[in-house]
Design brief:
It contains 3 helices and 11 strands; from the N terminus they run βαβββββββββααβ. With 191 residues, the chain is α+β, with helices and mostly antiparallel strands. It has a single domain, classed as Alpha-Beta Complex (Peptide Deformylase), CATH 3.90.45. The longest helix is centred in the last third of the chain and has 17 residues. Bound molecules: nickel (II) ion.
Length: 191
């Protein structure tokens, strides 16, 4: 059995701005390995370094979906979505590619048992570096675009519950209050 601890809603670490990675060294490799392992143990589709207590600009994503026909454009080439996963994004930033926003349901490993609807850009252009420091450009849409926007928010100290409607915030107020009051990490386990 493996277990992992993720910083929970209320942790000050989740509200800090993450610093850019400048050294693409063994420490970074080890951090990425820990994050990938944690994401799979917790059965999440994305994880940002601050959720593991490291305020550095590192994100891992794996939508863990069945093979399908979805594609992304990576460095100018159209390729199947599953070929870019697991996706490791160092120092990511993005721009929307059009004005279309989509309302979709989100959750977060740091905020268990809370779900809410967030408006995100449908299609985005992402710049990031890989684990070796090589720069890349990624164009993506739908769930991957949503996930990247959620994770980049984490790097800026923003949580999805900051973006849900007042009504949804009210509905979840008791859970959020309890998480904050408890003040301890969320533990996930797998067998
Ligand atoms: Ni999250």
């Amino acid at each position: 059995m493996s277990s992992v601890q993720i910083h929970a809603y209320g942790s000050p670490t989740l509200r800090k701005k993450a610093v850019p990675i400048k050294q693409f060294d063994k420490r970074l490799q080890e951090q990425v390995d820990r994050m990938l392992q944690a994401m799979y143990i917790a059965n999440g589709i994305g994880l940002a370094a601050p959720q593991m207590g490291e305020t550095r600009q590192v994100v891992v994503i794996d939508l863990q979906m069945e093979p399908n026909s979805e594609t992304v454009t990576l460095d100018g080439k159209l390729i199947p979505l599953q070929l870019v996963q697991p996706l490791v994004l160092i120092n990511p930033s993005f721009d929307p590619l059009n004005d279309i926003l989509m309302l979709g349901e989100e959750g977060c490993l740091s905020i268990p048992n809370v779900h809410g609807h967030v408006n995100r850009h449908l299609k985005i252009f992402v710049k990031y570096q890989d684990i070796e420091g090589t720069p890349h450009e990624l164009t993506c849409e739908h769930l991957l675009a949503r996930c990247i926007q959620h994770e980049v928010d984490h790097l800026n100290g923003i949580l999805f519950v900051d973006r849900i409607s007042k009504t949804e915030r009210k509905e979840n107020a008791a859970i959020l209050k309890a998480l904050k009051a408890r003040g301890s990490p969320v533990e996930y386990e797998t067998t």
